[in-house]
TrEMBL record:
Residues 10-140, 157-223 form the Exoribonuclease phosphorolytic domain. Keywords: Nucleotidyltransferase, RNA-binding, rRNA processing, Transferase, tRNA processing, tRNA-binding. It catalyses: tRNA(n+1) + phosphate = tRNA(n) + a ribonucleoside 5'-diphosphate. It comes from Salipiger marinus. InterPro entries: ExoRNase_PH_dom1, ExoRNase_PH_dom2, ExoRNase_PH_dom2_sf, PNPase/RNase_PH_dom_sf, Ribosomal_Su5_D2-typ_SF, RNase_PH, RNase_PH_bac-type, RNase_PH_CS. The lineage of its organism: Bacteria, Pseudomonadati, Pseudomonadota, Alphaproteobacteria, Rhodobacterales. Its EC number is 2.7.7.56. It holds the Pfam family RNase_PH. This is Ribonuclease PH. The gene is rph. Phosphorolytic 3'-5' exoribonuclease that plays an important role in tRNA 3'-end maturation. Removes nucleotide residues following the 3'-CCA terminus of tRNAs; can also add nucleotides to the ends of RNA molecules by using nucleoside diphosphates as substrates, but this may not be physiologically important. Probably plays a role in initiation of 16S rRNA degradation (leading to ribosome degradation) during starvation. HAMAP family: RNase_PH. It comes from the Bacteria. Signal peptide: none annotated. GO terms for biological process: rRNA 3'-end processing; rRNA catabolic process; tRNA processing.
Length: 237
């Protein structure tokens, strides 16, 4: 039995509210169970120096957790003068995941920065950030197309992510914190809407796993991402 009482293949409740901030070109508040993330997308008519003059666009991301997004207060990373290794790793993951669904030639020489701020954490914050980040990105690109700044849609396909793992010896979908903290194996699966894999992060936390179990987790991830993509499309329709 899962702590939440969910079936092994059952996602937490998913909701995506769009246009939640006044100034960002694209924004949404994504809630996956008790994990809530504010995602905003900002347009800039510039690109990093390493691609300047190439005609290619760029999508990047920043990620952070508010001090009381967790059970006890965390210090703001700004007070320490640098980002932690976990933060840097996650925001790089978000950026490269979103870029995998973008035609950077069609985007043109401009940058879109997706900011993901965790308001409340209960497991799967990086997956929620990627999923919500794509919605914010979609809304920002819609504005570019509406103004005629670009004529070809640069978003090839949605991008979404979900966690899967082995909890109490069973393959389960969409781990919350209670499961994540006790899972023998924990994984994050990032896929495009067309089913192609972008990245899989798997680690044996307290148990090893075999090929059959890996296949079970992959099947769960594909089903979970399909549900998330449906929610994304409904949110931006």
């Amino acid at each position: 039995m899962r702590p939440s009482g969910r079936d092994l293949s059952e996602m937490r409740a998913v909701s995506i509210e769009t246009n939640v901030t006044k100034h960002a070109e694209g924004s949404c508040l994504i809630k996956i169970g008790d994990t809530h993330v504010l995602c905003t997308a900002s347009l800039e008519d510039r690109v990093p120096p390493f691609i300047k003059g190439s005609g290619l666009g760029w999508v990047t991301a920043e990620y952070g957790m508010l001090p009381r997004s967790t059970g006890s207060r965390m210090r703001r990373e700004a007070t320490t003068g640098k980002q932690g290794g976990r933060t840097v790793e996650i925001q790089r993951l978000i950026g490269r995941s979103l870029r995998a669904g973008v035609d950077r030639v069609a985007l043109g020489e401009r940058q879109i920065t997706v900011d993901c701020d965790v308001l409340q954490a209960d497991g799967g914050t990086r997956c929620a950030s990627i999923t919500g980040g794509w919605v914010a990105l979609r809304l920002a690109v819609n504005k570019l197309m509406k103004t005629g700044a670009i004529v070809t849609d640069p978003l090839i396909t949605p991008v979404a992510a979900v966690s899967c793992g082995l909890y109490a010896g069973q393959a389960v979908l969409d781990l919350d914190y209670a499961e994540d903290s006790e899972a023998g194996v924990d994984g994050n699966f990032i896929l495009r809407g067309d089913g192609r894999l972008i990245e899989v992060q798997m680690s044996a936390e307290g148990a090893t796993f075999d090929r059959k179990q890996m296949d079970q987790l992959m099947d769960l991830a594909e089903a979970g991402v399909a549900q998330l993509v449906a929610a994304q499309k409904a949110a931006v329709a």
